[in-house]
Amino acid sequence: MKRVWKTPELDYYNLYADMLQQPHLLIAGATGSGKSVVINGMMTTALKDSPAAVQFILIDPKRVELVDYKELPHTLRYSSEPGEMVQALQEAITITDNRYRDMARQHVKKYGGGAVYVVIDELADLMTTNKKQVQPILQRLCQIGRAANVHVVAATQCPLSAVIPTPIKVNFDSRVALRTRSGQDSRNILGVTGCELLPRYGQGYYMTPEGCRLYNIPMYETETPDIIEYWRKQKPRIVWNG
């Protein structure tokens, strides 16, 4: 993929940092449109913080996109099998519920500790393998996670209503829309056509509650492997605080 380092408005770090600040984020586009670039950019940005500040639960049905992050000290769980993926979502619910209990004891409305990112590489695979189990768990996680600093980042190349049903979609008010196969796919993501006219890769619409803007999508080309290797070497020295 062609490297695009900056946009007129934001540099690559600030763009991904802003995406990480959203309660939940949906990333959608056709095969080869750059979904993995966005995910890796966000995770590389997140890895600039310590495991005390950022933790991952990774759901990787294809077993190739997120596997490089599997052994990092930030990673609480890596799941690629259907049963394990459901368990990973349930673990995220447990973490969220525990945080709400802590919040109740402290009489606060927002959790002040580290962020947990539940990263789903291909939502379509997750929904088609066990939709009856997955949908209510994912829906509840999206509804209650934001105050507990638990965030869902989900990517899909199939932005269909069967993959992103309305009860789940309404919780993703922040979205990245890359090139789509059709105007209907564009409408399913953003509510309007236009993504089908984007270049094959390198550009996408970033929608938040504040509005929707077109950005160049930047790549971390050498930084990602370097920071992964750094944290992999640190793992034996990390002691989790729970």
Briefly say what this structure is.
The chain has 242 residues and is an alpha/beta fold. It has seven helices and eight strands. An eight-stranded mixed beta sheet has the order 3-2-4-5-1-6-7-8, with helices on both faces.
What can you tell me about this protein's structure?
The structure is a single chain. The chain is of the alpha/beta class. It has one domain: Rossmann fold, CATH 3.40.50.300. It has helices at residues 12-21, 35-46, 82-106, 123-145, 166-169, 183-190, 223-234; strands at 24-28, 54-59, 75-79, 115-120, 150-156, 175-177, 203-208, 211-216. The protein has an eight-stranded mixed beta sheet with strand order 3-2-4-5-1-6-7-8, sandwiched between helices. Strand 4, helix 4 and strand 5 form a beta-alpha-beta unit. The chain is globular. Residues 1-10 and 238-242 have low confidence and may be disordered. InterPro entries: AAA+_ATPase (IPR003593), FtsK/SpoIIIE/SftA (IPR050206), FtsK_dom (IPR002543), P-loop_NTPase (IPR027417). It comes from Dorea amylophila. Residues 12-187 form the FtsK domain.
